[in-house]
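User: Please go through the entry that follows and flag anything odd:
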Amino acid sequence: MLFLYDLYKRLKQSKMFLANPQKSYIGLLSGIKNVRITPCFNTLSEIHFTIYEEENGEKNKYYDKIKEKRLIEVQYIGWFEIQEPNEKNDGLVAYKEVSCLSLENTLIGKKIHDVDGIFALYDVTDTEHSLMHIISKESGWGIGHIDNELLGKWRTFSIDSSQIYNLLTQDISKSFDCVFTFDTYQKQINAYKLSNIGELTDIVISYKNILKEYISESSADTIITKLKIVGADGVDIRAVNPSGMNYLINVDYFKVPISEDEGWMTQGLVDSLNNYQSVYNGYITQYSSILSTLKQYQSELTTLNSQLTDLDSQLKAEQGVQGTYITMYNGTPPVGSNEYNLYLASVNNINTIITNIANKKAEISVKQSQINSTQTALDDISFDLDMSKYFTQEQLAELNVFLTENEEYSDNTFTVTDTMTQEEIIDLKLELMNNGKNELQRASQPQYTIKITASNLFTIVDDNQGLSYDKWKEKLVVGNLVSIKLRDDYIITVRLMKMEIDLDNPQDIDLTFSNATRLDNELIQLGELQAQAGRTASALSLAKFGYDKASKLTNPVREFMNGTLNATLNKMINNDNQEIYMDSYGLHGRKWLPDQNKYDDSQVWLNNNTLLFTDDSWKSAKSGIGKFTNSIGET
């Protein structure tokens, strides 16, 4: 945003052009009075002005063309959309009071539909699952800067229909912990981590320079110091939080010893909190290292299970070949025939695959033991961080006074699906915890809003002490961080959230600073309420995709008492390690020999109307009961 200056470096009014919604110019506006420009950070900027029907006794050329939805370009500052103009007549002349919102307001009237699944914020390799590409396609806005920290992150959304502006600045902003800015000249959307946006300037505003008066507002009554953090369908942070809890605590604001003039806590509680924090910090590196090992083991387990699945598929395929021949010949093919050789090759393959499956299951068992041991190490750290070990009952009672909870931090875009690996689940929970931690860092401090009336540095060159304001003019931009010296002993650093500049009276300027992330007023809220209403009517759901916990499939060996077939009761009682299973080729009976890592060669197979027996793992059928067909087709 650039302001224009005259030869004496005094602020002058920028030219204002009227245009159609597609930015085709209608003309240069004249007869404009009472121009107020309000650039804002992380919300819609505004301009307000009055335009008269007549100028110098003549009809204002573009007066009647000032209509809702048309655009205003304030030269070098930005593009704005006209809201409903308010036409008045004071008995002498007709005029319109016009309010405009920055061009991104048009995104409230744009929607995206049917966005279901897992999406990245930005992924040039998969634009169909890139939210920025989807939004760009639907809105006509381009994609500008995307912080590197926001790449490679994925979230789960289920959106029937949603206004784009509302979705960006609320749901997506929260889920990816980012802030969006809008370049109204290039019509581009940018995404930043909050910590990466704005410059920490060397500006110190005080009564000795431009500060005239201020109003300080604080929301200390809304401080939150304990925050439960959850995702969709039971997802929480217990597995990645060193304390093992599903919540985080931050009482840093109150951690000041009581003295005569200030303080909140007893010295004993402050000392215990510092000690606990020191122990906690000491465990962080160890916990992170163990967690990385767990992720590695989970990845290796995923690979082993995939390999086991492949082996099971191979076994099923070979058993299909074997079953086909058994069905065709009511037993094994004739020895020496080509079919028998193919059949025998299949039997040998089956035996090899069965051995490989047994070995793979043993590897999986070892890996699972490593995972269990690693998880135990994490649980031990959580046990060691039990707060009752570091605080007396009296201190815990005192600490409880400062623990304030409100609504939980809930983000349903953090969803665990049945297609995710365990290491992906860990990464997702870590991101969820980090987002919650950042939110708690903000919520655990009073939200200050300081409104300042300042001598307008845009109209002066320097003060009586020779201080030059040229650099200040460049750095006093919404979003930047500045320091305010309210008293000799009280300096705070806050972000410039809003500037209110009356171009007809530029001597004074109203500045709003805050450590909050967003400011709203009634005009802006009205637009976003429209978006909210549309979103509610469209039944936006961010939690359609549930968390399907993949239960581990186990085939425990059935343990029965030793015995023999009891024909009278008509039931079969098997010895240990015996298996009976059924597939499309009949009922199979066999016994596992764990010491040999194979099945017993003697097996039984009930197929169609034939019961077959083998003593060489189906290289041949030694005997059978039922209906058979000989080599010349006789039954």
